[in-house]
């Protein structure tokens, strides 16, 4: 059986991996082209909503079914050839997606493809703009902090929404105290407390709760410590 593969990568969350394969079921004489578009490249990510688009040449979307033989892979049809793939186990064996054509009496396997299952990189808090003259505490007061991750070569662009965080004040002299923000912004009390600190006093952002745009899992970040200069 002959096959032809074309791989095209583009960057960003809306980047698309196009894999065009000429393939078919062993009993078929005409082998339709199968196009799989995957926003998150060649991997399926653990506990994440992986969006894919499936199209088969000459077959309408209504007559296509995407299935996985692994029970831990949940697949939801979103319509118009769009599917959401959600693996609930981090299997070292990966997962297989099977594409079927619906027919009158049964379904015919058109194509199957293996994906590795990967864990999303751990996010962390970043305060400031990274500029040479940037002051983390001043940037924090201005709300210039966000959540990011080390994506490596994957070039993923995942958006994280900060739901809540605590700000611990640890002065050299005096008692420690903590403020709570139930949003992605510092409160007025936090900013006022920071402005009253002296050189050597510490400010620690703790228990930052975030949710990404591709998962409903609540993530608690590690602490981010700053010192008054």
Short description:
This protein is mostly beta strands.
Task: Give a written overview of the molecule.
The protein contains two helices and 17 strands. The longest helix is centred in the last third of the chain and has 8 residues, at 188-195. Strand 13 and strand 14 (177-181) form a beta hairpin. Helices cover 6% and strands 46% of the residues. The radius of gyration is 24 Å and the shape is rod-shaped. The strands form four sheets. It has a six-stranded antiparallel sheet, with no helix packed on it. Strands 13, 14, 15, 16 and 17 form a five-stranded antiparallel sheet that branches. Strands 4-10-9-6 form a four-stranded mixed sheet, with no helix packed on it.
Name of the CATH class of the largest domain: Mainly Beta
SSE-based structural type? mainly beta
Overall CATH architecture of the largest domain: Sandwich
Number of DSSP helical runs: 2
How much is the average pLDDT? 83
- Tally of strands: 17
The succession of helices and strands, N to C, reads EEEEEEEEEEEHEEEHEEE
Strand content: over 45%
State the low-pLDDT regions, or none: 1-29
Whole-angstrom Rg = 24 Å
Look at the structure and name the CATH superfamily of the largest domain: Immunoglobulins
Which outline best applies?
rod-shaped
How many separate domains make up the residues? 2
C-alpha termini separation: 69 Å
The main sheet comes to: 6 strands, antiparallel
Could you tell me the CATH topology label of the largest domain. Immunoglobulin-like
Determine the oligomeric state from the structure.
Answer: single chain
